[in-house]
Specification:
The complex is a heterodimer. Chain A is α+β, with helices and mostly antiparallel strands. Chain A has helices at 21-32, 37-56, 86-89, 99-102, 111-117; strands spanning 5-11, 61-67, 71-78, 121-127, 131-139. Chain A has a single domain, classed as Histidine kinase-like ATPase, C-terminal domain (Heat Shock Protein 90), CATH 3.30.565. Chain A is built from five helices and five strands, in the order βααββαααββ. In chain A, a hairpin with a 3-residue loop joins β2 (61-67) and β3. Chain A starts with a strand and ends with a strand. Chain B has one domain (3-107): HprK N-terminal domain-like (Udp-n-acetylmuramoylalanyl-d-glutamate--2,6- Diaminopimelate Ligase, Chain: A, domain 1, 3-Layer(aba) Sandwich). Chain B has helices at residues 3-9, 34-38, 54-63, 78-86, 98-107, and strands at 13-16, 27-30, 45-49, 67-70, 91-93. A five-stranded mixed β-sheet of chain B has the order 1-5-4-3-2, sandwiched between helices. The longest helix of chain B is centred in the middle third of the chain and has 10 residues, at 54-63. Chain B is globular and about 35 Å long. The chains are: A alpha+beta, B alpha/beta.
Chain lengths: 140, 116
């Protein structure tokens, strides 16, 4: 693998059943490319949490994945309400998810902390009323 | 222990993936919150849950979980079973409640992971 590979996915709003399809596809591709299982797992979990967030908190959006020989960069841009207090949102257990989301098995306040935990670098840019872009990096 | 032994210990039945019954299981976790499952890496784990939606299968896929057990006699719908079948992921249903199911596997020597 000498050149970078770019992948783009559209994430639909409120389509909970299909949430995770992009992460699943990236995981399969990384496996075919022979990336180490540890790096694949980190990318898969972080991207999956992000994808779920885009469906339950935002109005969907798009995900760009760049795979180079050294690193994998995931950029998740949503059209959601923005994050009012990033520091609070990063605390394990803090969640603004409504009960119907909890009933689906999410909204435990572990999404963003998990994304940070499994990536080597994470950056959040958010504008209230416009959306949030999360950029995550995993070194191969 | 193997997936087959997990099924026997829980007096369970296969919903799919019986052909993977000899796969080794090294650890276990029980939760209805998928983000909690995603928070801790596990080695060759079985996931016990009462949650029945496609995200249980997705979570298992991302975590490389080797088997899903539905407790309290919960039955996922056919689409979820098909999704697991396609991914080669065995699914078991047991009538035991979560606490009892976890206890039965613990008794057989299975543990929760690195923090034990």
């Amino acid at each position: 693998m000498s050149e970078s590979i770019h992948l783009t996915y559209e994430v639909s709003a409120d389509d909970f059943t299909r949430a995770g399809e992009a992460s699943s596809s990236v995981k399969r591709m990384l496996k075919q490319m022979g990336v180490s299982p540890e790096a694949i797992r980190k990318v898969a979990i972080a991207m999956y949490e992000g994808e779920i967030n885009m469906v339950i908190h935002a109005q969907g959006g798009h995900i760009d994945v760049e795979i180079s020989p050294e690193e994998i960069i995931m950029t998740l841009a949503d059209r959601g309400p923005g994050i009012k207090n990033i520091e609070q949102a990063m605390q394990a257990g803090f969640s603004t998810a409504p009960d119907n989301v909890r009933a689906l098995g999410f909204g435990a306040g572990m999404g963003l902390p998990n994304m940070k935990k499994y990536t080597d670098d994470m950056k959040i840019e958010t504008v209230i009323g416009v959306g949030t872009t999360v950029t995550m990096k995993v070194y191969i | 222990m193997t997936v087959n032994e997990v099924k026997d210990a829980l007096h369970g039945t296969y919903l799919c993936g019986e052909e993977h019954g000899e796969v080794e299981v090294h650890s276990a976790c029980g939760s209805d919150m998928m983000s909690d499952v995603l928070a801790f890496l596990k080695d060759q784990a079985v996931l016990l849950t009462g949650l029945c939606n496609p995200q249980v299968v997705r979570t298992a896929e991302m975590m490389d979980i080797v088997c899903i057990v539905f407790v309290r006699g919960k039955m996922p719908d056919q689409n979820i079973i098909e999704m697991a079948r396609e991914k080669g992921l065995p699914m078991i249903s047991t009538r035991h409640r979560m606490f009892s199911a976890c206890g039965l596997l613990y008794e057989k020597g299975l543990r929760g992971g690195a923090s034990d």
